[in-house]
Design brief:
Elements lengths: L2 H16 L8 E2 L1 H8 L3 H13 L3 E4 L3 E4 L4 H26 L5 H19 L5 H17 L4 H9 L1 H11 L8 H15 L1 H18 L1
Antiparallel strand pairs: 1-3, 2-3
Length: 211
C-alpha cells in the first residue's frame, strides 16, 4: 500500500463528508469503497482510520465505520474543548500584549479574514473553501499566542470544526462569516476570553436550536 494513496483517498472521503455527499450516519464499507475507488482494502482501511481519528467518522465493533453524526452531545463537547483552547490562547495574548497586539499578529489574522472573505465570494464554485478558511482563522488566532501545545490542540480539531461549520450552515445563511469574524477579532482584542465564550456559545445555540 502506498501511504500517499491512502492519504489521497482520505482527502476525497473527508471532502465527501464535509460537503454532505456522505450524510451523517452513512455506513462506510471497505469492500464497496475499495471497488468504487479502485483501491485495496488495506488502503481503504487506513483512510477510514484517518477519518475516525479526525472524528469525521465513528467505528464500533460489529457495526463498522459510519460518518459521524455530530449529535447534540458531540456539539457541546466540541465547543467546550474549543472554548478551553481558544480562550486560553486569547488570555495569553492579553497577558503579554494587552489590547496592543503586535503588528505581525494583527496582520496575520487580518489576512485570514481576507482569505475567508474571498472563499465566501467563490463559495458557489468551492463551498469547502469556506469551511477550510473558517477553521484556519480560528487556528491562526490560537497560534498567535505562541504556545505549541495549544496550537497543536487547535489543529487537531480542524476537521471537526469544519464539520461543525458545515452543519451550522444548514441553519443560517452561509454568507457573512468574514464580516462576523472581523467583528469577533475586534471583540476578542478588546474584551479577551469573554468574547471567545460568547462567540462559540452563539454558534452552538444556533446549531442546536435549529435542529
Amino acid at each position: 500500500m502506498s501511504p500517499r494513496r491512502a492519504d489521497d483517498l482520505h482527502a476525497v472521503l473527508r471532502d465527501r463528508v464535509l460537503c454532505g455527499e456522505l450524510p451523517p450516519g452513512t455506513p462506510l464499507r471497505e469492500e464497496a469503497l475499495a471497488a468504487e475507488h479502485a483501491a485495496s482494502r488495506h488502503t481503504v482501511r487506513t483512510a477510514l482510520a484517518q477519518l475516525v481519528a479526525e472524528r469525521l467518522a465513528s467505528s464500533a465493533p460489529f457495526a463498522g465505520v459510519r460518518v459521524a453524526l455530530l449529535d447534540d452531545d458531540d456539539v457541546r463537547s466540541l465547543q467546550d474543548l474549543r472554548r478551553a483552547v481558544e480562550s486560553e490562547a486569547v488570555r495569553l495574548l492579553h497577558a503579554r500584549h494587552g489590547r496592543a497586539w503586535p503588528v505581525d499578529v494583527a496582520a496575520a489574522l487580518g489576512e485570514r479574514v481576507d482569505a475567508l472573505e474571498r472563499a465566501e465570494a467563490g463559495a458557489d464554485s468551492d463551498p469547502l473553501a469556506v469551511l477550510r478558511e473558517h477553521a484556519a482563522l480560528h487556528e491562526a488566532l490560537v497560534a498567535a499566542a505562541g504556545s505549541p501545545r495549544l496550537t497543536e490542540a487547535a489543529a487537531a480539531l480542524g476537521a471537526e470544526v469544519r464539520l461543525f461549520t458545515a452543519h451550522l450552515q444548514l441553519h443560517r445563511a452561509p454568507a457573512g462569516l468574514a464580516a462576523q469574524h472581523r467583528t469577533y477579532l475586534t471583540a476578542v482584542r478588546e474584551r479577551g476570553p469573554v468574547a471567545v465564550h460568547e462567540h462559540l456559545a452563539a454558534s452552538q445555540e444556533t446549531l442546536l436550536s435549529g435542529r
